[in-house]
Amino acid sequence: MKLYISIDMEGITGLVDPTFVDSRQYNYNRGQHIMTDEANHVIGTAFEQGCKEVVVNDSHSKMNNLLIERLHPEAQLISGDVKPFSMVQGLDASFAGAAFLGYHTRAARKGVLSHTMIFGVRNMYINDTAIGELGFNAFVAGHYGVPVLLVAGDDETAREAEELIPGVTTAVVKKYISRTSALCLTPEKSGELLRAKTKKALANRADVKPLVPPANPVLSIEFANYGQAEWAHLMPGTAIDANSPVVTFQAKNILEAYQAMLVMTELAMRTAFC
Fold first, then answer.
1. What is the rounded CA–CA span in Å between residue 233 and residue 247?
2. Cβ(225)–Cβ(180) under 8 Å?
3. Which residues on neighbouring strands pair with residue 153, listed in sequence order?
4. Which helix or strand (DSSP H or E) is residue 58 part of?
5. Residue range 22-80, pLDDT digits in tens
6. Cα 143 to Cα 163: distance, rounded to the nearest angstrom
7. What is the Rg, in whole angstroms, of the alpha carbon atoms belonging to the chain?
8. Beta strands at 97-103 and 148-154: parallel, antiparallel or unpaired
9. Per-residue DSSP letters for 127-195?
10. Residue 178: CB partners within 8 Å, gap ≥ 6?
């Protein structure tokens, strides 16, 4: 059995503000250590429960945050960017399940460090379904027939996951107070929780169905301002709303929609503010 792990940073216990998740700031190295420990709790338990292969995709910012010298020795790590499929790079039909660790809520919802890819996105949709990083990544997994078995993060992230994926196991390592504060488990207690939840998720894997994406999906992104929408609209095949900062793209499948999202959000980040 193969397990795929996508690990972000904002949903790790104790990481509550940008000083922990921005490589230029003073708490970042602490965040790296705690993030690597949380990954190891899940990886080690997966091997104990019979997994033969665990692939970990570093999915935060420049995607080189995990300390490979401290990672479980049997794990394989996908590190660095640019990756054609970003947070789900390397995911394919060979995996029995996926785990999303350190995840956060989408931009329009409350949650610790909530956002969707960039801070200029207000809402994102596949057809009429509002999604964030969690939902989009789960759709890509579903494209390959891979169920998302475990989601770890704050309590609001757990709620978002449970709304999207019936039967998913969630691990709440901190509870939302505000976007930059939380009631956090200590790393020791979060480790205990993650090990227990990984065992549960793997034992219950037959009860979780892949989140199958719609055929020929329409991707819609609502940006924070019209300038960002104008930049995103430079991508061929997009349409821009004349009266709101919404850009749409008709995709042939969820993989094309995902890469369109990556291009559109990268372009939108070029917007200058006076």
1. 6
2. no
3. 103, 172
4. strand 53-58
5. 999 999 999 999 999 999 999 999 999 999 999 999 999 999 999 999 999 999 999 99
6. 19
7. 18
8. parallel
9. TTEE--HHHHHHHHHHHTT--EEEEEEEHHHHHHHHHHSTT-EEEEEEEEEETTEEEE--HHHHHHHHH
10. none
Active-site residue, selected from the candidate residues 60, 72, 104, 115:
115
- 115 catalytic, yes or no? yes
**Residues ≥6 apart with Cβ < 8 Å to 212:** 142, 143
Determine if the pTM surpasses 0.90: yes
Mean pLDDT across 88-108: 98
pLDDT given at position 273 = 79
Give, rounded to a whole angstrom, the gap between the first and last alpha carbons of the chain.
53
3-class DSSP state for residue 71? Answer: coil
CA angle 221, 224, 225 (to 5 degrees): 105
**Token reading at 120:** 């200029």
CA 11 to chain centre: 9
Cβ-contact 150, 204 below 8 angstroms: no
Taken in order 55, 59, 63, 67, the sign of the CA dihedral is negative
- Among 74, 66, 25, smallest CA distance to 46 is for 74
Structure tokens at 131: 């999604």
Burial of 85 (0-12, 13-18, 19+ CB in 10 A): middle
Residue type, 20: F
Token duo for residue 3: 């397990």
CA gap 196, 249 in Å, rounded: 41
The number of residues in the chain equals 274
- The two structure tokens encoding residue 251: 């995709």
